[in-house]
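Supplementary Methods, section 5.1.

A reviewer requested that the exact input to the structure prediction be made available. We therefore reproduce it here, unchanged from the version used in the analyses.
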Amino acid sequence: MDEEYDAIILGTGLKECVLSGLLSVSGKKVLHMDRNGYYGGDCASMYLEQLFEHFNKKDCDLSSYGKSRSWNVDLIPKFLMADGVLVKLLIYTGVTRYLEFKQVDGSYVYKQGKIHKVPGTETEALSSTMLGIFEKRRFRNLLVFVFAYDESDPKTHDGLDLTKVPMVTLYEKYKLDTNVRDFVGHAIALYRDDSYINEPALATVNKMKLYFNSIAKYLKSPYLYPLYGLGELPQGFARLSAIYGGTYMLQKPFEGITTDENGKVTGVTSDGETASTKIVVADPSYFPDKCKKVGQVVRAICLLKAPIPNTNNSQSSQLIIPQNQVGRKSDIYVLCVSYAHSIAPKDWYIGLVSTTVETANPEAELEPGLRLLGPIFEKFIQFSDVLEPVEDGTKDNVFVSSSFDATTHFETTCEDIIKIYEKITGEPFDFSTLDAKLEEFKNLGE
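The structure derived from this sequence is encoded token-by-token as follows.
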């Protein structure tokens, strides 16, 4: 290990793996280490037996659940937007050659005690039972504006400067009520709370376009999920790293870093040996002293024998419960995957309910989501602190990622990845370099 590397990555969580891939592809010599004996960190995938042991349920009878190795249960399952940043990063690094994806069947939202499919087209908007006659027309008018909007063409702006006009003004212009705003902001633009309403509308319009562009690729929903679960992603990056000369080491204890007289990192020590480097990237568990707690997430992983009721028998789906629908400050997320994605034996489903903790009784906060799952055969509750780095890493060249939030999609995860990459390189990420490789992915979900 006494070698020199351009970057040393600590932890094999998804963020660290993507950054490892980006740096490797850009020509950096990378050493990727993990103190654990498995890939994935907090977002690892587990066989059934491992899952029960992880949650201290070691003496349970597992015979009714099928073979343990037929299960691949993600501790933090999330979906990929078909036209989102993570998919583009996977293409850019070439990891897609090692993975197979399948489209998620449906995208749903909870409104006034009922589950509704999120309209993905103008036609669906006009036929949706979620909207009244006048709401349909008004929502359609908003969609027409969003689809036509081109930031570089003032003729499409309808007199509005979306870099200055808040989203609430756009809602008011199209006379959209609270219920429509809920599913636009939370189920389409995927905001976690309502703070976006008073911010410039351009960001929301772009998020709406991302959602609809993702649907347009495969029509049923905007989401994708890898066969055999998210645990395949870090293993794909391990293969990629090897191709570009990188090195992966599991079960390597982290004993600290060395620095120069200016406080800049110069190396990472493990087993008494120090590998030299000028850049370190790590998940929060490696540098708790460099992080602050900004919240907590509670998640329930549930084993089911049927899809979520009222989702058209979808073998996989996402359901968002907007905060206003249940009197909360933040949304509740419900996700379902199944044997259709090769993560469970035939006829078994995995449900996840997650949210940001707001009270002294976090498990009770999941109840609105748990009630929608139907019969639950086994339930695993976990609490996770949400940690963020105190500094951006440029002072000592130690770049620490943030913890995963409560969302069941990767858009906020990608924001953190790009931010760290730009801090490391000192320049904006050039998304135009992704365009040449997008054709490789065009038949991904077929």
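The first helix runs from residue 14 to 25. These observations are discussed further in the main text.
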